[in-house]
Amino acid sequence: MRKRPKRHVVIIGNGIAGISCARHLRKQTEDKITLISSETPHFFSRTALMYIYMGHMTYDHTKPYEDSFWIKHKIDLLHDRVKSIAFEKKRLSLERTRDVFYDELVLATGSTPRFLGWPGQDLKGAQALYSYQDLQEMEKNTQNIQRAVVIGGGLIGIEMAEMLHSRDIHVVYLVRENSFWGNILSEEESELIHQHLRTQNIDLRLNEELKEIQTKKGEGVEAVLTAKGTLIPCDFVGLCIGVRPNVDFLRKTDLEIGKGILVDEFLGTNIAHVHAIGDCAELKSPLPHRRAIEAVWYVGRMMGESLAHNLASQPKPYNPGVWFNSAKFFEIEYQVYGSVPRNPKTDEHVFFWRNLKENKSLRLIFGKEKGEIRGGQMLGLRQRHDVWEEWIRNEKHIKDLMESLEKANFDPEFFREYEVEIREEFGKAFPHLSVPSIPSGT
Amino acid sequence: MKSLQRLSLAVFLLGLGGFLSSFFWGGYQVQKEDLLKNMTEEKALRFYQEQYHILEKKYDFGFTLAQSLEKAMDDFNTKRITEYEITSRDIDLILNQSRSPFDTSAFHGLGAKKESVRYFKTKAMQIYGSWLQDKIFVDKPSLRASLEQVGSQVRSYEILPKKGFDVYEKDRLVYALTKASTQGLPRTHSLFFLCCIYGLCILGALGYFLPQIKTEGPAGIKNKGIFHSSMKNRGYLGILTGSILILFYLVLYFKPSYMTSWICMVDPLSRSLSGHEAGPFFLYGFLYTLCVGVMGLRMLIRYRHSPYQMLRTGSLIFFQLGFAFLIPEILLRLNQPYFDFKNIWPLDYDFFFDSELNKLIKNGGLGLFMLGWGMGLILLAVPILTYFFGKRWYCSWVCGCGGLAETLGDPYRQLSSKSLFSWKIERYSIHLVLVFAVVMTAGVLYTYWTEQSEYWGMNTYGIRKTYGFFIGSIFSGVVGTGFYPFMGSRVWCRFGCPLAAYLGLVQRFKSRFRITTNGGQCISCGNCSTYCEMGIDVRWYAQRGQNIIRSSCVGCGVCSSVCPRGVLNLENKTEKGRFDLSPNISAKLSQI
Q: What residues make up the domain containing B137?
C-alpha cells in the first residue's frame, strides 16, 4: 500500500454500495471516512424489509453489523440529509448538521420509486415500497384493512403481494404485461409463477393496467380503475412498477447525469474526486450483456468494493464478472447465472426442463455453433455459483456440462435429485448432443 | 379449517388446564402400614407414637402434607437428639474419669437413665472417638474440644441416621410417604384421567397442527408473524410459559413430593412398561417424550418441504421414544440395569459414579456390555462420527436435549442472542463446564479406586454434589428448558453442555463438516442468523462468502432452510479448503 496523506472520504448513502465501499476502504487505508444517510442511522439490509413486515424479523435483525462495529472501525456515521453539493468547493450542505468538506466524494444515493403520475397516486393508502420510511408507512396504511391492489409485475410487486398476503389481506395483483416478470422469465417460467400465485389465492390479473386511484371522501383510497374499465374496491394500493436512480437533488449541478449519474469504467464521474456507485450510477459504456444501470444488491456490493480499491490503490476498471442474480417468489426460489434472455438470439439454442408438480424448472442457453454454455436460470433448484461461473467463463460445452450437472447441485442433503430426469429430457430435445442419463464416472 | 383449529386449541387448553389443576386434586392421608413399609420397625413405631397427629389428619394438597411430614421428621429428630446427644454433662463425666494418656474406657462412665441409651452413647463414642486412645492432651480444655468434636460427629453420623432421619432418608421418606398416601381421583381413576388429560392435550395439538397443511398454503418456510407473537417474542404468553416450565423443573428436582397426584396418574403406564410404580423421573420421561412426539409432528408438518428436516426430526423422535424412554423401562422389567444407550458422558455426568459402575459390573454380561458401549461412545463414536458428519450426528439427530430443543423449543429458536458478547460468554461458560465435569469425574474415579475422598484438597463427594445441583439440575433443567421462551431453545446446549463442548472441539479442529456459502448470492437479509438457535451470526460469514465452521453449530440446517436465496448448505467434504473464502464474492479485481 502506498503511503499518502489521510483524506476525508465522504460517502452519501449507507446502503450496500456505500457501506461496501466504506468497509473495503477502511481495510486498505487510514482515511477518515464519513457515511451520511437520512434513512436510518445504521446500515440495514433493504432486501429484508419485507421480512420485518411479515414478522420474520425485527428491524434490529436486519442490521448486518452490530452498532459498535462502526465505532470500532472508525467509520463515522452521520444521520442527516444532504441538501446540496458545491462541487467546486468540495462542500456538502446538510439539513441539520453543519457543512461537511470532502477530499473524495462517493455518491451511493440508491434508487427512488417510479410513479407514472396516475390520478390519485398521492392519496393516503397509495404508496411504493423502497425505504425504511415506506415500510413504516405501509405498516400504518395496512392496519385492519381487507383488500389491497398491487401494481407491477416485478420483484417488488410480488414481494409486496406476499407481504400483504401474510397479513391475510386479499390481494388483487395487476400486471400490465401478459406475464409476470416478462422481461426476464420465459413464458413457461412465468406460467409456473402464475400458477403458484393462484394457489395462494392471489387474484392475479395479467394485461391489466392502472388508470386511476379513486376516493369518495377525498382521503384514503377506495378503489382502483383499470385501463380496461374494471373497478376494483380496495383500501390500499401498492405502486411497484420499478425504481429509478435517486439523483434529482443533483440535477442542477455540473455533474453529468443521464438516467443516473454517468460514470466511467473506474466509477468516476465527470467531476474529479467525485464517484458514483450502486443503483444511482449509470455506466457510460456498459460491459457486453450488461445494462448501464443495474439496481441490484450484488452490483452495489461489487461496485463499492471496486471503488474502494480504486480509491486506495492503482485504479482498475470495474468488472463484475459473470452476471448472477436471485429472488424468491413466495415459496419458489429463483437463481440465474450468465445471460438468459426471455427469447434466445438466432445463434442460440434453448433447453427447458420443468417439473410442474414440484414447481421446479431449469432453462439453459447455449451457442448453436460451438455448443458453449451462455447461461442457466433455475426455479426451485439451488445451484452452485462458483461452478456455474467457471462453466460460463470457460464456455463449457453443453455436452460436458450435461455430464457433470451434479457438480452444480447445491440443494440440501437428502433432497430429490433431478439430474437424470434433466438429462433424459435433454436427450429428447437434442438427440445429437445427448449423453447417457446416468453418466459413468460422475 | 380455522374453526377446527380454534376448537382444537380449546380442547388442548382444556387438557392443559386439567393437567395443571390435577396438581391440586385428590386427598392425602398417611397410613400406619406406609410407615412400616418405608422405615425400620423401630423408627416407624416411634414415629407413629410421637407424630400421630400426621396420621390423624386428611391433607388436601401434596405440598401441605409434605411440609407437615418434614416438620414432623424435624421434631422427631430433635427429640432423638435430646435423647441420645452427648451432652456437656456427659463430657464432664468423661473428663472426670480421664487419665493422661487418654483411655477410651472413660466412655463407659456415661450417665443416662435408660440402659439402652447409655449403651448407644458409649458405643458411638467408642466408634468415633477411637482415635483419642493413648493421646496426650496438654490440658483439659483441649481434651474437651476434641470430645465435643466427637460428640457432633456422633450426632450427624449415628443419632440422625440410626435413630432419626438424615437428609437423604428424609427426602426419600417425604416423597415415598406422600406418594403412598395420595388418594382420591388421581389414585382411584388414574387410568381414566391419564387418558383424558393427555388425550385431550394430544387431540387438541393434532387438531391444531394438522390443518396447517391446508391453511398455511404450499409447503415452505412459514415464519410469518413470529415477532408479532406474544408466545414467540417474549410477550406475556411467553413469560407465562417460561414461568410454568421453571416451576415444573424446580418441583421435579427439589420437591417431587408436591406432584404425587401427577405421578399417580402415570402409574398404570409405568406398571405396564417396567412393572414398577412410577417415580418423578418416569413422569418426566413420559412428558418429555410426549412433547418431543407431538411437537415433533408439528416440526414435520412445518418443514415438510425439506427431507433433511423431516429425517432429522424423525430420528430425534425415534431416539427419544425408543432409546431414552422405552428401552430403559423394558430393561427394568427384565431386571436389568436402567440404561440409556444414546446418552454419553459428560452429558451423562453420573456414568462413572461408583453406584452406576457397581450396578453395571454387578450385573455381569449385559452390564459390562453397557459399560463398554458407553466407553465406546465417548472414545470412538464421538471423534469418528464427528469427523465425518460434524457434531450434528449427535446434537440434532440423536440427543434428548437436542430432541426437546428442536421440537418443543422450535417456536423459540429465534430468541437466542447473536451478539459478540454472548459468543464470548458462551466460549467461557461451556468450556468451564467441561473442565468442571472432567475434574468432578476424575475425583469420583479417584475415590472409586483409592477409597480416599480427599482429592487436591477437595472432597470428591462435595464436588459431585455441587455439580449435580448447579449443572445437572439448575443449568440443564431449570435454565436449559425453563428459559426457552426467554433465551431461545438451546441455552443449555450453547452455554452449558460439556458433551457439546467436547463434540464442538472435534468439529472445529478435525472434521469434514462445514456450512458452505454459495458464492456471492447472499443478500445479508439476516434470516439465517435470526433463526440460528445457537446464536451464531451466520450472516456474518455468508455475506463475505466464508464457510461457517463453528464449534457450537449443531447442524440443525434451519439456516439453510430459511435462506431465501439458497446460499447455505450443510456439507461433509474433504478437510482441504474448508476455511477458504468463496472466490465469487467480489468484483473481479484480480483478473484485470
A: 30-183
- State the total domains in chain B: 1
Which residues of chain A make contact with B420, given a CB cutoff of 8 A? 66
A126-241 shares the fold of A8-112+244-312:
yes
Phi, psi of A76 (to 5 degrees): -75, 130
Instruction: Flag if A415 and B308 touch (Cβ within 8 Å).
Output: yes
Question: Is the CB of B564 less than 8 angstroms away from the CB of A328?
Answer: yes
Cα–Cα dist A6/A3, whole Å: 9
Question: Cell digits for A178?
Answer: 401478459
DSSP result, B344-361: -TTTSTTTT-HHHHHHHH
Q: How many CB atoms lie within 10 A of CB B524?
A: 25
Q: Which of A248, A17, A212 is nearest to A112 (CA)?
A: A248
Four-way CATH pick for A324-433: 3.40.50.970, 3.30.390.30, 2.40.300.10, 3.10.180.10: 3.30.390.30
Contact between A417 and A393 (Cβ < 8 Å): no
Q: CB of B224 within 8 Å of any CB in chain A?
A: yes
What pLDDT score does A2 carry?
Answer: 53
| Per-domain boundaries in chain A | 8-112+244-312, 126-241, 324-433
CB pairs under 8 A between A and B: 159
What does the pLDDT look like over A135-145, one tens digit per residue? 999 999 999 99
* Cα separation, A250 vs A266, whole angstroms: 20
The pLDDT-based confidence of A378 (bands split at 50, 70, 90) is very high
| B114-138 per-position pLDDT tens digit | 888 888 988 999 899 888 888 888 8
| Maximum pairwise Cα distance, chain A | 72
With both helix axes pointing from N to C terminus, report the angle between B236-254 and B280-302 in degrees, rounded to the nearest 10. 150
List chain B residues with CB under 8 Å of A303.
587
Handedness of CA B222, B223, B224, B225 (dihedral sign): positive
The list of chain B residues with pLDDT below 70 reads 109, 111, 583-585, 587-592
DSSP per-residue letters across A255-309: S-BSSSEEE-TTSB-SSTTEEE-GGGEEESSPPTT--S----HHHHHHHHHHHHH
Burial of B366 (C-beta count, 10 Å sphere; 0-12/13-18/19+):
middle
Secondary-structure class of domain A8-112+244-312 per CATH: alpha beta
Q: What is the ipTM of this complex?
A: 0.96
The secondary structure element, H or E, covering residue B73 is: helix B62-84
Chain A residues with CB under 8 Å of B555 CB are none
- What cell was used for B337? 440395569
Q: What percent of chain A has pLDDT over 70?
A: 98
Residue B111: which residues within 8 A CB-CB, separation 6 or more? B89, B90, B93, B118
Q: How far apart are CA B409 and CA B414, in angstroms?
A: 10
Residue A376: closest CA among A347, A396, A356: A396
Cross-strand pairs, A397? A372
Q: Do A335 and B565 touch (CB under 8 A)?
A: yes
How confident is the prediction for chain A on average, in pLDDT?
95
- Do B151 and B95 meet the contact criterion of CB atoms below 8 Å apart? no
Dihedral angle, C-alpha A138, A139, A142, A144, nearest 10 °: -170
Phi, psi of B49 (to 5 degrees): -65, -50
Which of B:509-568 have CB within 8 Å of A?
516, 518-521, 523-527, 529-530, 539-540, 543, 557, 560-561, 564-566
B46 within domain boundaries: yes
> Is B217 close to A199, i.e. CB distance below 8 A?
yes
Give me the CATH topology for the region A126-241: FAD/NAD(P)-binding domain (3.50.50)
* Bridge-based pairing state of the strands A210-214 and A203-206: unpaired
Owner of C-alpha cell 474502494: A308
